[in-house]
Structure formats: structure tokens, C-alpha cells
Design goal:
Blueprint lengths: L30 H16 L9 E2 L14 E6 L5 E4 L7 E3 L8 H16 L10 E11 L2 E11 L6 H14 L3 E9 L10 E7 L3 E5 L2 E5 L9 H16 L9 E5 L5 H8 L3 E6 L2 H13 L6 E5 L2 H10 L6 E4 L8 H9 L4 E6 L2 H13 L2 E9 L9 E8 L7 E4 L3 E6 L12 H9 L3 E2 L8 E7 L1 H12 L4 E8 L6 E2 L4 E8 L2 E9 L6 H7 L13 H11 L6 E8 L8 E4 L4 H11 L15
Parallel strand pairs: 1-16, 6-7, 11-12, 11-14, 12-13, 14-15, 21-26
Antiparallel strand pairs: 2-3, 2-5, 3-4, 5-6, 7-8, 9-10, 15-17, 16-17, 18-19, 19-21, 20-21, 22-25, 22-26, 23-24, 24-25, 26-27
């Protein structure tokens, strides 16, 4: 497929830092080519999911500003007073980004002011030892543009507060557009730029930030989109989609999850929607409520602090009903629990704003089998000169597709189960519909809810006839799992298993067990000292957290690859196989790159 893109004038950008800086990997590529690449980035994971067949990836909306667009920057500080990002392929070497092409002029001037005072020794802070990073955010109000500056200091080398306050005052004098300065305390070994503790040093702690017809309250460290013009476009796309619903925007009941400081939800309320906004960070939710009150929107906007899944569940239990749910989750996407609550919400539509194509595809595939489908995805270039891409999808309620039939016999049918999916043959969902249609209303053997792959269903008579076949030692099942660390090449505890590949330091393993219906696969492997990545009961907590944050894995990496039934009551050996699902294939891609999928031991798993 040749991607179609909007047609801004192609351009090549030169930058003195390009050969070292890790921040703009697409710089030097013509802009049309950047947009084409980003469309393929959105399309590639969509193609891994059969549930998303037919979903169109539309042309990428290019950014009006391809340079000097970045209104938020978190930058590291080195001992030589360099301020910038870590160098490409060089461990913790900071590239000084004086003259950076993508920072807005105001953000660049704030960074230059900090750099100048560090270099002159007049700031009173030791670069790289006490001051280890800066976070600069540009804001816009009726009185013009301003900036919030956060000085990130090490907890073990933390300067005394009087020293920090004096440094803040000097910086506000040097760069008058700085509205406020805060300190943030970071642990030395943290992989995050910002630590958990932030407090005001000088100036304003909360600043009005206007986007469109409404404003929200900006403060230090809070999430914000870095490209203001494209962020406004996203808000317009969401508003237009809701406005196109029957009856228009006025009075529409909107549940907004991951609402931040309320920039999007406040804009919808101003247009006439009735918004319940949920945000896990309580101070941000409070700021959204304050901004709503100041703008006279308190009767149409309610801000609630709490986890998205928990708050959705509580709101629905209390009788709240919504016409549309709008979600703008972080890079790791929505949790499985949140997706489950959305499916229960009864909302007619879901508007999904995403900054990660892989988690977007994963979540859309899961929502599809729960009863919501997107016909198309509209990507936007929020981050010119990088590989990152923002997307918007509009989902409508629909009948979920039936489970895919992998193999069938007059007495038994093999179906493909998705991860997180509970097989319910007696309810009203997609499994029950297919079971009633085929007269196959009995689950022949049990598979864990979070394990994907082959599931066998049969009739009442078939279950009685096949009971011995299921327990026959000539029957077998095979799983593919990803185990923590490097395990032995072969073994027999927990089933006969062999390591297929070591990918990203972890072991892709095929496990074969005779007969069916044994102990759950993760439990069986744990007895053999093998921990499945993503398994919350028997796995490794830190590894699970890393894989969810970095590799999109929100369940155990465990897939029932195949089932083979002995001839017995079937009259012949009968086999069914389920290819590796999209969410697990995506983990392998992110772990080891596309070449992983061409590995001779991995390629057959994809079907």
C-alpha cells in the first residue's frame, strides 16, 4: 500500500546537532517522506490484528510549524554546563542543544538563560551534580506568552532552599518571560527526568494557558501537548465528531478519561457538552475544576480524581450514563480493566486520542471484540522531525465479530480466543452467539482468561464422547511463552519445552504437554523455576512493569499455539493451530525489531 499524505512543501532541514542528538531522528528526511513514514507507523500494527481488517489509515495531517514548534522541553544538564539530550549511541553524554531547531524561541531563550548563568558561575548551583535537568513549558494567555521553569535537583546533592530561591530570582530577572520557577527533587538512579516532589521557588505556581476558546491552569511538570497548533487541531477533531452526532454537541453527556488539567474537556463544556472528567493526578483534577468555575462552566463540567477504570466503574454503578467517552491515555494505552468498563458504559461512541500506534492498535482490537469499532484512523504530525505520531480514532457501537474458526469437526470446533477474553457460552456475547448458532454450547477444556489461542467447544453429546480423548496421553497441547531471562535450551519439568530464541535478553519458549486440562501453564512453569513475562501471580513484578511501559504488554505472554486430539472418538488425529496474536507479535517487534519476526523459529508462529 502506498501511503497518501497531505502535501506540505517538501523541505530538508539542516542542524548542527543532527549527527549526535537523539531527539530528531527524522531530520534531514523530506517532510512528505516523514509523513509517509508516520502513516506506515500507524498502519503496521493495525495489520497485525484480524479484528481490525478494513480499518483505514487516512492521510497524515502535517504540521504548519515544522521547526520552532516544541513548547515543552525536558533537558539534561551536564557538568560542563551543557543542556540538552543524551547523545545517540553514547551512554549518558549530553549533547548541548544551543541553537536547537525545534524549540520555540521562548523555550530556547529560557534554556539559554540557564546555560549562561551556569557557565558564568553566577547561578549558585553546580551543573550536573546539583542541577541535573530542567523542564521548560511555554504558556499563552490574554497577556501574551510566558514560561514555567522547573529546576531538577538530585536528592543526594540537593542544594539548600535559600540557594535555590536565589537562583530562581536571578533567572526570572535574566529572562522576564519566566512566570514562575519550581524545584523538583529526583532520585539519582531514576530513569525518569522528573521526580515525585515539586515545590514553588519564586513567581507564580499556576498560570492560565489558553487553547482555543477556553483556558486551563498550567503548572510545573504537568502533561501538555508540545505542539500547540496541532493540539488545537486534535481538540477540533474531537469536538467535530461529537457535534456530528444526532442532536449536535449541546447537552451531550461526555465521560473524559485521562483528562489532565482539563484542556480538552473544558473546551467541550464551553461548546455545550456536559463533561465528567477523570484524572488520576488529584492536583491536576483540582486545577481543572478551578478553571471551570472561573469560566462559569461549573454546571457543565465536573472533575474527578482517581484511576480511570475504578472511577468509570463507580460512575456507572451510581447510574451515570454517557453518550460518548473520550480517552487520551499515556503512551502505554488503556488498561484492560478500563477497556472492560468502556464496553459496559453503553456509550454510543468512543473518541480515542493516541500517541503510540502500537497501543492504539492493541486497544482498538480489544474494543472491537467488546462491541466498538473504528472505521478509520486519522494521524497527525504532532512531532515533526521525529518518528512519533499522534492519532485520532472514532469508534461506534457494533455487533462484535464471532471468534475465528480455526478447525472444525462434527463433534468439536476449535476457536481463536483473544487475551483478556473470558469464554462465556451461555451469555449474550460473541461466544454465546456462535455457540447457539452451531449447537456447540460446552467448553471442552479450560484456558486461562488472560491466555490467548486455541479453545475447544462441543455439544453436550460431544463432551461425553470426547472426555476420554481429552485425557488420552496421545492428545497434546503446545504453548508459546516468553520467560524472564535466559533459560536452558531444553527441559522436561512443566511439560517438554525448548527455547526457540533469546530476544532482548528473554527466552521465547515452546512448551508441549500431553493430554489436556492440566494445571494452568504459568503455574506449571513456575514450579519448574520459569517465570512468564507479564504474569502477575507467578511472574517478576519489575519485569512486568517494564514490559507494560516499554513494550505494550498488558497480560502474560502466553499463547496456546495448538491442540492435537488423539483419534479416539474422532476416528482420526485432529489438530488446530492459532497464529501468534497481534499484541504478542508487537512485543517481539519492539523487543528485537522487525528482524525478530523473520527468525526461523518465530516466523511459523505467525501463521
Amino acid at each position: 500500500m502506498t501511503p497518501a499524505v497531505d502535501d506540505p512543501a517538501p523541505s530538508l532541514v539542516a542542524c548542527q546537532h543532527l549527527h549526535l542528538c537523539s531527539g530528531c531522528p527524522a531530520m534531514g528526511m523530506p517532510y512528505q517522506q516523514q509523513l509517509a513514514f508516520k502513516q506506515q507507523r500507524v498502519l503496521a500494527p493495525i495489520l497485525r490484528y484480524p479484528q481490525l481488517a478494513g480499518v483505514q489509515v487516512e492521510p497524515v495531517i502535517g504540521s504548519e510549524l515544522q521547526l520552532e514548534y516544541r513548547s515543552r522541553a525536558k533537558l539534561m544538564v551536564a557538568p560542563d554546563s551543557s543542556i540538552g539530550l543524551f547523545a545517540r549511541d553514547r551512554d549518558h553524554q549530553v549533547v548541548d542543544l544551543a541553537g536547537c531547531r525545534i524549540l520555540t524561541p521562548l523555550v530556547a531563550s529560557v534554556v539559554a538563560g540557564v546555560r549562561a548563568q551556569l557557565s558564568a558561575g553566577t547561578l549558585g548551583l553546580v551543573a550536573g551534580r546539583e542541577l541535573v535537568a530542567v523542564d521548560v513549558r511555554e504558556t499563552e494567555g490574554d497577556d501574551g506568552h510566558g514560561a514555567l521553569l522547573t529546576l531538577v535537583v538530585r536528592r543526594d546533592n540537593r542544594p539548600k532552599d535559600p540557594v535555590l530561591r536565589q537562583a530562581a530570582r536571578r533567572l526570572m530577572t535574566a529572562v522576564p518571560q519566566i512566570r514562575g520557577v519550581a524545584a523538583n527533587v529526583r532520585d539519582a538512579r531514576s530513569i525518569q527526568v522528573l521526580g515525585p516532589q515539586t515545590y514553588l521557588l519564586a513567581g507564580e505556581g499556576v498560570v492560565v494557558d489558553k487553547l482555543g476558546e477556553s483556558y486551563h491552569h498550567a503548572t510545573f511538570g504537568a502533561f501538555t501537548q508540545v505542539n500547540r497548533k496541532q493540539a488545537a487541531r486534535v481538540h477540533e477533531m474531537v469536538a467535530d465528531a461529537i457535534g456530528a452526532m444526532p442532536g449536535g454537541m449541546a447537552g451531550k453527556r461526555v465521560l473524559e478519561l485521562y483528562g489532565g488539567a482539563g484542556a480538552l474537556g473544558l473546551g467541550l463544556a464551553r461548546r455545550g457538552a456536559r463533561v465528567d472528567m477523570v484524572e488520576s493526578f488529584a492536583p491536576a483534577a483540582q486545577r481543572a475544576a478551578d478553571a471551570a468555575g472561573e469560566q462559569g462552566l461549573g454546571d457543565r463540567f465536573r472533575a474527578l480524581a482517581g484511576d480511570a477504570a475504578r472511577m468509570s466503574r463507580e460512575l456507572l454503578a451510581a447510574g451515570a450514563r454517557y453518550d460518548v467517552v473520550v480517552v487520551n491515555p499515556p503512551r502505554r494505552g488503556m488498561s484492560a480493566a478500563t477497556r472492560s468498563e468502556l464496553a459496559r458504559s453503553g456509550a454510543r461512541s468512543i473518541g480515542y486520542v493516541s500517541c503510540d500506534p502500537d497501543t492504539l492498535a492493541r486497544d482498538l482490537a480489544d474494543l472491537s471484540i467488546r462491541g466498538y469499532r473504528a472505521e478509520s484512523i486519522r494521524p497527525l504530525d504532532m512531532f515533526p522531525q521525529t518518528h512519533e505520531v499522534e492519532s485520532f480514532a472514532w469508534l461506534e457501537r457494533h455487533a462484535p465479530p464471532p471468534p475465528a474458526v480455526l478447525a472444525e469437526h462434527e463433534r468439536v470446533v476449535a476457536l481463536a480466543k483473544a487475551g483478556h477474553e473470558q469464554v462465556d457460552l451461555a451469555g449474550v456475547g460473541r461466544w454465546a452467539s456462535l455457540a447457539k448458532e452451531r449447537g456447540m454450547t460446552v467448553l471442552l477444556d479450560k484456558v486461562d482468561d488472560e491466555v490467548s489461542g486455541v479453545v475447544l467447544v462441543t455439544s453436550e453429546q460431544g463432551a461425553s464422547a470426547l472426555r476420554g480423548t481429552v485425557q488420552d496421553p496421545e492428545s497434546s497441547e503446545a504453548y508459546v511463552v516468553l520467560c524472564v531471562g535466559k533459560v536452558a535450551a531444553r527441559g522436561r519439568r512443566g511439560g517438554s519445552w525448548r527455547r526457540l530464541a533469546v530476544i532482548g535478553g528473554h527466552s521465547l519458549v515452546r512448551v508441549e504437554r500431553t493430554a489436556l486440562g492440566g494445571a494452568p501453564i504459568m503455574q506449571e512453569l513456575s514450579r519448574a523455576g520459569m517465570r512468564v513475562v507479564g504474569d502477575r501471580r507467578f511472574g517478576h513484578e519489575a519485569t512486568n512493569r517494564y514490559f507494560e511501559e516499554r513494550h505494550t504488554l498488558d497480560r502474560p505472554f502466553a499463547h496456546r499455539l495448538s491442540v492435537e486430539l488423539a483419534s479416539g472418538a474422532l476416528g482420526r488425529v485432529w489438530r488446530a493451530q492459532a497464529p501468534l496474536p497481534g499484541d504478542l507479535a508487537t512485543v517481539l517487534v519492539r523487543l528485537g525489531g522487525d528482524e525478530t519476526l523473520a527468525h526461523p523459529a518465530v516466523a511459523p508462529l505467525l501463521g
